[in-house]
Amino acid sequence: MKKITILFAIIFFIFSNQTQAQFASYSFDTDANDAINGYHPNTYGGISFITDGDSSVIELEEDGFLNLPSALSGNINSEEEFMYSIRFKLTDEDEGMRTLVSNKYFSRPALGFDLYTGEEGGVQLFATYGDNKSEGQLDFVSPLDFNVWYDVTVKMFFNVTRPYIQYMVNGNVSISYFSDQHVDIETFKSSLDNKQIWVGADKNNTMAIDHPSYAKVNIDSLLFYNVVPPGDPALINTVLNSFTNHMNGSTTLSDTEKENLYSNFVDNWDENSYIPNEEIITSYLASYNLQHGAIFNAEIKIRVSEMFIEQRIQYTLQQWIVDNLYTTSNTSNMAGVTFLDHTVFPGEVDNNAPRVNDSSFNIDGFYNTDPGFMLNDQDRVIRPTGYYAAPGELVTLTFPNNIINQGVKVRVGAHLGDLEATWNEFSRFPRIYTLYNVNSTSLTVANPFGGAIYVILPDGSNFGTVTCQISGAVKAPYYSNKPGFERTLLDYQTDLANNHVKWVDWESSKFITTFPAPAATTIANPDDVITLWDQTFDSFNIHLGRSLDRFRAEYILIDCQNNYAGTAAPASNPMPIEVTGDNLFNPTPTMVPINVINGDAFMTGVGSTIGLEHHVILHEMGHLHNPPTLHEEQETIVNLPAVAVYNQVFGQSMDNALIYSNQQRLNFDEAALDWILSPPFRFGDRMEIDTVNYDNYLDGIQTSYQTRGHAKYADIAQLYSWEELGDINGYFYEERLINPLANNSYQDDIYIGAATEKMDINMAPLFEFWGILPSENLVSNLEKKSTDNKIKERLLHYRSIVPADNDEFQVVYDNMTPRLESHHDIRYDNMLINYNEAVADSIVARIDVVLCKYYNANCVASNNDGTPTVTFNLSSENIDENSATDVTLTASLDILSSETVTIDFTLSGSALQTTDYTLSSNSITIVAGAQSGSITISTSGLDDNEIEVLQTIVLTPTITNATTSSEAVILNLLSEDNPTVTSITTSETSIAENGGVSVITATLDTPASKPTHIILDITGSAGYEVDYAAAYNSKGEFTISTVAGGNGAGTANNQFNYTSGLYVDTSGNVYVADLLNHRVQKWGKGATSGTTVAGGNGAGSAASQLNKPHGIFVDTSGNLYIADSENHRIQKWEPGATEGITVAGGNGQGIASHDLNIFDKLNSPQGVFVTDVGDIYVADTGNNRIQKWSPGATSGIRVAGGGEFGVNHNLLAHPNNVFVTPNRDIYVADSENSRIQKWREGSIDIRNATGWNEEGYDVDQLNFAIGVFVDPLENMYIADYYNHRIQKWKVAANTTQHLDETFVEGDAFTVAGNQGQGIATNQLNGPKAVFVDVLGDFYVADMRNHRIQKYHYSPRITIAAGETSGTLTLTAIEDTSDDDDETIVISPISVVNAFSDHINTHTITIIDDDELPTLSFQLSAESIGENSTTDVDLVATLSATSNKETIINFSVSDTSTATQTTEYTLSNTSITIPAGVNSRSLTISTTGLDDDEIEVVETIVMTLNSGLTNAIAATNTITLNLLSEDAPTITSIIVDDTNIEENGGVSIVTATISAPTSVPTTIELDVEGTATFIDDYVVDFSSKGTASIVAGGNGIGYFSNKFSNPAGIFVDTEDAIYVADQFNQRVQKWAPDATEGIIVAGTEEMGDTPNAFVEPRGIYITNDDYIYIADSKNHRIQKWMTGEFSGISVAGGNGEGENSNQLNNPIGVHVDILGNVYVADTYNNRIQKWEPGATSGITVAGGNGEGAAANQLNNPHGLYADDLGNVYVADTKNHRIQKWGPGDTEGTTIAGGNGEGAAENQLHHPEDVFIDTKGSIYISDTYNKRIQKKEVGDLEWTTIGNESDQLDGIRNIFVSAKMNVYVSEAFNQRVQKYHYFPEITIPAGETTGDLTITALDDTSSTSVASSTQDRNSDDGDENIVITPTSASNGILSAEAFGTTINIIISNESLNLLNFELDNVRSYPNPFDRFHFIDSSIQLKLEIYDVNGRTLLKQNIEVGENKIDLSRLSKGFYIFKFIDTNRIMSKVIIKK
Fold it and tell me: Which has the higher per-residue pLDDT, 559 or 606?
């Protein structure tokens, strides 16, 4: 073996002082606490601490488990490495299942990791790793025994070339690499930081759902490390030297010495850091080879743990070399490196083989997937080259430039796959391939095992024919008949004859194989085999309904190791077929695919040396193809391909084909018996996996791997054809083609419905027989479809083979049990004991139920004595005079009779026999054994030519040998002579809006026997259900018309290829998203073809292209927004544009989850909605969320959905559509949950608007709700996709209902479709979208019919039979918009059963009674600067939307002081507001205009011209201030007094500027010194400072530095911020200046336990450190002590409700000084007060239902309670703040209450209110994105935080004692602090401004001693140092900038104990319980805490006053003494 040369620069490791960083250690001695950082877990269920030998351990039984705090995980270094170790043993030998360590749900794909024990051929240790999107990685770690201690260490390495996991189990080491196919490493890593780790159970103990019994486990220790201890290469080399010397015989090692050396090897082996010594490792490998030979030469599977020590080391070193050293840059150093095991597999290369030099080969460079196929791992394809790399030899390839860095790879070695990822025993090395990226034109490759060379192309490759050169390789036999890449048979045979390698490649366009070359010599022509395999794959495609042209050839690979237990892997990871080593290179092997031409051998199971029959290969290939699959059929539907192949390719009969399709070897009759003999069949249950013990018949798994599971599909092919079965499955091929997120799992009803529609036959009876049960609704819907006697005869045949008794069953038993698996043997054994005639009868009875249900055959007697019962059926209820169609009367028996049944009829009724009708016979005879008989009733040739009322024919039966419940059969005889419509009149031709009525009456000249229908067309300018309603005495009909498409699928302008989106503008233009034509078309009214307005340039990602457009939206400006799904973006196409602009997404596909949030990317968006302000709402379908993108935003915010697929109320499952109402209610088509959800933006109030009764066909159910539209009356129109209908739902009036609504009859009804799936005019086929226009007509995107259908309601007047008149009532609706008078034009269009010549139209005018809307103006800014880059918009807004155009003309007033053109410009001098729109604007600009002069304010005054129509102006004049941008100079800053006294001393600082200007000038000041703000002085602020982020602001997430909708906030005396992190289910505490928070309450998981929350909202912290939390969705208030791990309920907690002891979604909480808890009981619309210890609350505000009256509230969110008992309420949905005094029955509005809006006197959805110590009120005006503040005595409000929308999603506010304002922002995921600091403001037009500083009495406690005797306190003089730091709108002169002002506050030496104010004494200070105040005058005392909260107000009487303040906690308090002249304050300390 050649010496190994390694490029040391490639892999290196620097050993520094890296230590073993252990961050948590659990020894479980007497408790479960961590010994290092004190991480205390929560414990649950059966846990105990026991002694095991010398160890103290924790024992977990049944549901006992721990969950460790998320703070522990914050130590994990997920960018580098992570390690944990556990010592455990299993002690319960009855159970093997137990999770040991986990941070995820018990599911392989779930995000996170777990380590668990389970059963798999004995007890095993497993580990899984998931990313929530791939299938997940499963590692088999080690077999286990019971009652044995196992030391397990798991090390994860991330920052390496190939991230991997190393397991060490009791000293045995194994390695598993993270597989890209199974888990995305970056996503997985995101799960490690700050997620809770569970011990003994998975996340939230969900494993208990499927595994209720757990193994009992003892755990001795659990350790976590954030750094894997580094290995020591020196020790490794020492070990290798020692073993080398031992193998060479120079030394001898004992077994103990070997074990110790190997232990050192294991402890120090780190494949990431190991740098081998070349000489040492070469010597070891050579010595091993010499001493022991190849590792796997025994040709049997070996476990690594069972290898002897030297073998384990050899295995480790060689596998490490393959995995790490064959890189692009290092391969050249590996020349000559070979491993002896290559001689075993994949085999040697002849040393004499010639090596090629610059030989050329071509590969097909095109690869583009077909999404309809849905194959596994479609993202890559393999291309053989026909060349082989000899072991250890370098091969050079040269590639053209066009494939460089395009994702192309080269693989050396056919045998791809990591055996270690699946198995723990092997017969070859697990990884024997090397892989290279093609990133340069020249590439050197090698493999120490050798291997065939392949090029791997990524999906989307379009490189054409790629010509490459190769040098250094060996030519390998390669045959191809692929068009364009053929190799001649002669060339192939020549290569095979001169072959020097062990492997051959064959290729066609459908099939590729790699197999040993010796076997190829037995096949003269490869086409003999290839043709059969091509036909095999054609057979797949035929029965799956797919194109025969495959986009990828499927790869079958021969291996000595079955890579995935037969699992069919794709071409990039070929399906391996295992052959033993003995047989591998035998020239005549019986192996697949060579011997597949000997089909009989493989079908009968004799063709494989290891028992692998052909059907297994086809079974696994079935998995590869992902056929449409019903519930629990995953392992049986994939047996169907074998039936198809054996029948179609090998010509076997269908019976034999079914026999050979799986190991049971059952034919159709036997498969049917295997099903019908089971109890579930007899009980009418579904065939599925079911372990229920039916009558002691152990049924076990009913479907998996069994013939009866797939026989029903084969039955369809047998009765009809494989092609027709393909037509059925083709439906689902199309589904995947048009829906990129479609899976392969479908409901029974969907499959049965598709089968029926495609076959045009009712297929339900066949499916029901085979245990696939249609719903009652589907059965009813399919009644209109004809049944087929083929199926009936088939069922009768199965009926005939039922064993009649135990003897006949014995024959079945003897025949079938030898072929059935053991648990079925048990079932048959039990049945053999119990089978008798009664069992046989019950089986027959069940078949008869199906026959009776669908064929009215074999029905069971309805009475008890066995006498047949006769039922009668008329083919029609009516017959006309002189009818050409007779009516048949059929008599049917419920059971067959052995006697003849005779029915004689007596005739009566008003019609006369012979003159009015005739009978074929007066009796019916049903002969013995027959089911029915009939007679006919005829009127042919009989007509009296008279108009008559209804006549009847009455037949009264007399029956022999049967009974009946029918007394008579009645047939109506209708006159064919029609009356005449004499008149159609209207009662009123003019009606008023809002209730005006006009009645339309139609009259006949004479009554008739049939009802008369006058069909009306209603047109005009009035809209149905918009302007008027119609009270019909008959339902009327929709006039259905195709308004776009309908000409089949195609690319022409009059065709579509799946209509996937729809929008109708106000002009009636229809916009259609044409899915597979990748375009949007616009169809005008009446058009016969469309015009492409977007895309149409093929599928692509260029700006001019689209790729599968879905939802579309058109705004009022005609801009078209498109959900460009496969480009993962929203495109905006302006009118006439040839390219689109990306306005959302477009940054590639982003896959988000609850734990990994990506906001700048989308994933297959399918819906889009744009609001009037330009906000774009996106149904981000693949990310299971709704995003909102503001105009110009580069990322979105999540407004609905949790980011992961789910059914919980806060999750979505592939939402397809979104609709936003003007109130910003968000309706979501939550498609795969079959429901519509209503989300309320901001409040995150989630309601199920529809579909809470699971998926289905009933009227109150939906089945894949894919589109939603909400009309102005809030009726929802829903595209019910799989039900092929449009449902209309009424929105519940009671808006407090949510999540648990009860369906009310009439809430929903079908308005389109529901006629079965089809193409008829009244049918739909997969409706995708629905749109309602302004006239009430609705349009449907009939997706699969490639058309748009319009439904126009055509009412009818019905005149009942026997009557002469009928009416239709029209009632006008109040539309609240100013219109011209509107018209309803009524035109008779047809008459049924009457004559009429009435063609005149009738016009009814609706008189508009709406007042003209008021026109108001709003400037986007009050002023504009010179040369401003920001224009000012003048917005004209109507008070109500008008249906008339409004034109506003302006002129510039003479009073303007600014000059147009030189100082400003106008975009227009008029504004036009179109009809239907309520606002438009013009722009005022000063860009580029500046006169360079310092000026006072100039004005731009615009005046309305006369002639304004259709509106009334609220004002005629609009004034905009023009501000000079030229700043004055600040000349001086002076102070009037530099020495002031405590307690009222005042100093005024004055600033002066050089000239007055048009904008205020501000000078920011820095204040330092020994005096403290608030304590020593206050400042009269004239401005505020800027905001700073003090918590969060790092995007949405669950990490400790992020929030997910922060809500309630509280700031304590140390300026620590407490935040209720709503969707992270926790409360965090952020210390001052912290960069992350710590959890102080909650578990981060939803729950209703004392330690968990469901959406915590408001919080409040009392002086004694208790945290009160509004746990909103648990409907309770929780009280937590800081540092505790759970809380107690102090309010609510008794379930959701409105009783006094209940709450309903409480959002706000406040606690007063007495401990009373005030709760904003939001959904109950009240404020509740809970006294300490109370079990129920008292309503103190609201509680009178939802409303806007003074005594009502509407969804109150926030509140504040002062010490006087006043409650201030943020009455959110009434847009007001109310104040309720103690005992008040009504509230007083103190802010807002003027409707929603942004004016100063308005609020919009206020969510919180706060009162500071000065009585100032603060309001979180949420939807206006501002904080409003008003101080006591102020008349106007001050706004905080609306500059440039710096606040978004405001939740709560808090004002600290230092007057800092804290704001939580849900949408910005942060808390901001507005820090107030001094500024001097010089108003516009003035030259001076000042700042007033007032000294306070600080009563400093700095010199207070422990003595309680009277003494003076003197803290000395203090100073304030003021310096200017900067200025805005002004320039600081040098003099001003250098100013320093020093103000001295002189100490008055106030006596802290004997404080005197008019002889007032206050003592002691500090105090313990009582405080005394001795006063000679009456005073008022107010006590505040340091946060400024009022704690007490009390009158002080003359004399000594003793005040009990025991309820106050220790701390500092401010006592304020107030008399008539002055106020004095004092700091008092409570001990």
Answer: 559
C-alpha distance from residue 1040 to each of 187, 982, 1322, 1352 (Å): 50, 29, 7, 6
Closest residue by Cα to residue 1280 from 1245, 1329, 1240, 1320: 1329
Strands 981-986 and 1167-1170: unpaired
Structure tokens at 168: 């060490």
User: Which pLDDT belongs to residue 865?
Assistant: 64
| pLDDT, position 613 | 60
Exposed, middle or buried: residue 445 (CB in 10 Å: 0-12, 13-18, 19+)?
A: buried
Strands (E) in 459-500, as ranges, are 461-471, 474-475, 478-480
Find the radius of gyration of the CA atoms of the chain. Answer: 43
Q: Give CA angle at 1537 (1534, 1538), nearest 5°.
A: 90
For the cut 80, the answer to whether the pLDDT of residue 1876 exceeds it is no
Taking a C-beta distance cutoff of 8 angstroms, is the pair 565, 635 a contact?
A: no
pLDDT above 50 for 1954: no
Distance CA 968, CA 1093 (A): 66
Using one digit for the tens of pLDDT, what is the confidence trace for 1549-1578? 999 998 888 888 888 887 778 777 666 777
Report DSSP letters for 1465-1527, one per residue.
EES-SEEEE-TT--EEEEEEE-TT---------EEEEEEEPS---SSEES-SEEEEEEE--PP
Q: Where is average pLDDT lowest: 781-785, 1002-1006, 1490-1494, 1808-1812?
A: 1490-1494
Asked if 1493 and 1555 touch (Cβ cutoff 8 Å), the reply is: no
How many Å apart are CA 398 and CA 442, to the nearest integer?
5
Lowest mean pLDDT among 7-11, 443-447, 1954-1958: 7-11
Supply φ then ψ for residue 413, to 5 degrees. Answer: 115, 120
Q: Cα(1449)–Cα(1471) distance, rounded to whole angstroms?
A: 7
pTM for this predicted structure: 0.70
Residue 776: CB atoms within 10 A of its CB come to 11
Q: Quick check: helix, strand or coil at residue 1179?
A: strand
Query: Which of 375, 367, 370, 444 shows the shortest CA–CA distance to 406?
Result: 367
Task: Give residue 1201's Cα distance to chain centre.
Answer: 6
Question: Residue 1295: pLDDT above 50?
Answer: no
HSE toward the beta carbon, residue 1848, CA cutoff 13 A:
14
CA–CA gap between residue 46 and residue 31 (Å, rounded): 14
Using DSSP's 3-state secondary structure scheme, residue 1787 falls into coil
Residue type, 1650: P
* Strand ranges, E, within 875-993: 878-880, 887-893, 901-908, 918-919, 923-926, 932-938, 951-960, 963-964, 969-974, 981-986, 990-992
Mean pLDDT of 8-15: 28
Q: Which residue matches tokens 């990490």?
A: 1599
| Side chain identity at residue 275, one-letter code | I
